[in-house]
Design goal:
The chain has 3 helices and 8 strands; from the N terminus they run E-H-E-H-E-E-E-H-E-E-E. The chain has helices at residues 14-25, 39-45, 99-116; strands spanning 6-11, 28-29, 59-61, 69-74, 87-89, 119-125, 132-137, 143-146. A hairpin with a 5-residue loop joins strand 7 and strand 8 (143-146). The mean pLDDT is 93.
Length: 147
């Protein structure tokens, strides 16, 4: 039997990343628990110190309940090395879709994400390969791929 989970991303600015990733993944900002005006209000109620609170919403969820919840957790240190785990944003449609169509979809999504604050790092694919992806980073430098 599988277990449920949430993905936790360490960061300096949870509000920034929550808003970016909500748009990127077409998720929504998760509402705070019942009886609380905000997540920070809830955290205070359970004793989290002020210096560990973020700068706005820090949780997102799939509006359809299919994908995992994501929590952006404040940590004091900045990212200094390459991610050991990353997200793949799948927009191409899979191998049954012609490469030219997948390429157009990936490029359109990469452009949309750049407009939201992502940085395009490189294109992955090329002549003779049945693959097209764009390596990117989010506003705090966390790497992810669009394919």
């Amino acid at each position: 039997m599988s277990v449920s989970y949430q993905l936790v991303i360490d960061c300096a600015s949870p509000g920034l990343l929550a808003r970016f990733w909500a748009e990127a993944l077409r998720y929504v900002i998760a509402p705070p628990p019942a009886g609380h005006d905000s997540w920070d209000d809830f955290y205070r109620s359970v004793g989290v110190p002020e210096e560990e609170l973020g700068d706005g919403p820090d949780r997102i969820e799939d509006p359809h309940g299919e994908g995992p919840a994501i929590w952006f957790q404040v940590v004091p240190e900045r990212k200094t090395i390459k991610n050991r785990i990353h997200l793949d944003v799948n927009v191409g449609g899979g191998r049954a879709v012609p490469l030219a169509t997948r390429r157009d979809r990936v490029e359109a999504e990469a452009s949309r994400l750049v407009a939201l604050g992502a940085t395009r790092l490189r294109t992955v694919g090329g002549e003779g390969l049945d693959h097209h992806a764009v390596a990117m980073s989010d506003p705090e430098g966390n790497e992810f791929d669009v394919f």
